[in-house]
Specification:
Layout: H1 2-6, E1 22-34, E2 41-53, E3 59-66, H2 72-82, E4 88-92, E5 106-110, H3 119-122, H4 124-139, H5 150-162, H6 171-182, H7 188-192
Parallel strand pairs: 1-4, 4-5
Antiparallel strand pairs: 1-2, 2-3
Length: about 200
Amino acid sequence: MGLAAEAPTGQVRPDRDLLSGVVELDEVFVGNESRGAAGGMKDNTAVMVAVESLDDRRLGRVRLEVAEVARSSNLVGFAMRVIEEGSVIKTDGATNLKRLAGLGYEHQRFVGLDSKEPAHVNLPGVHMVGSLLKRWLTGTLHYAVSQEHLAYYLDEYTFRFNRRTSNSRGLLFYRLLQQAVNTDPHPLAELRNPLAPVDVPF
């Protein structure tokens, strides 16, 4: 039980490389089931997405993170955590995102009101990742994802997405165990309820 619960925390390396090159940055909204409501209440939760845009409309690596609130200023901090300085960042026209140009990035803005093209044409990678994420949540997990555990499932999706073209499928479980060993310990109580304070004996 403990090993099974610990595995999701090992799907993201603490020292993982930052995204680089051309990176699309935006938010998507996913529905997830909140406990305590009869029949399951659906919430719209903002998930920040950064994905590398490669040649021939191919996608590179992705990073996902739950946003406490849907606010463009949160995307700036997210970008600084997951995207390497000097990269080209493509975003929508939110005013707060103009700050990226002064933080060591080349910023390309898409202002939807001034364009005849829909958002998915200018930021196709983000919308593709968002669509696949929602399909995975509904098709594989049947939206049985509680709010407090959504971040773990985003880590699992990131792990799967970034290794989708791996030629050594048998090594993925080995890599997962290797990364789990290299991460900080997480008490089972914390994994069951990440939002509650946990006393860790030393």
